[in-house]
Amino acid sequence: MTFKNLFEHISETFFNYDNKLLRTIIDLFKKPEAVIESYINGVRKRYVNPISYFGLALTITGLQMIVINKFFPETFDFSILTMPGQEEFQRRNMSFVQEYQSLVMMFYIPIYAIMARISFVGLKKFNYTELLIVFMFTQAQISITSAVVTIVTSIFGISMGVLSLITIPLMIIYNAFCLKRLYNLSFGMIVLRTFIFLIVLGFLFVILTIILMVIMYLNGDLEQMIEAQRAARETANIFNLYRLGPQKLNLI
User: Fold this and answer.
1) Whole-angstrom Cα distance, residue 79 to residue 22?
2) Suppose 232 and one of 60, 84, 170, 211 were both cysteines; which one would form an S-S bond, judging by CB atoms 3.0 to 4.6 Å apart?
3) Where are the beta strands (DSSP E) in the chain?
4) What is the pTM of this model?
5) Cα–chain-centroid distance for residue 31?
């Protein structure tokens, strides 16, 4: 075994066009129904199985977090998505997501499967377990792609908040594309089902927000957030009065 042999083996295993991993990544963009339905129908050798692929996504996303924290910590800026006074609340959320990232990603899968089950009611092509497989593949694909894009954009100083404004709509479009191909729907039907999906998402978001507010009220974080918002408003009012100038202040 020489270094050349080792390099050739690694190249053949991971970067060969006929490699299962590369084929899975490419086909999940081009023809996701081929990857997902193959596994559901029992053809398991052509593509990476969903559990392994999702595990790879968790690993790559974890490495992305390490790289960002080490070299580009300033890109953890979500102020563009945060209302005044909620900076500390957003910081705690990001800290929680980073610490329990794997659990958060796994939590999304059954939630998305339930939402799809509701949104695609009347279409009995996939049961709940099969929808879990669908979203294991799609979320893994999104996570791997997002990790690479995030690292590249961080090099150019683009914050994750700004990037989210672009990636979130693209994530919705990609999932809609995959479900359209899987259910063999027309463009109009997938738009309608996506709209229903977003309504269900909004409903679940309200429920989760209420639960989060109750938890924050019980541990005192809600009161701190209200005080921070009040202080932010007072600071903004003082700044606006200062901009009026001394003469207008005297008139007031």
Assistant:
1) 36
2) 84
3) none
4) 0.74
5) 21
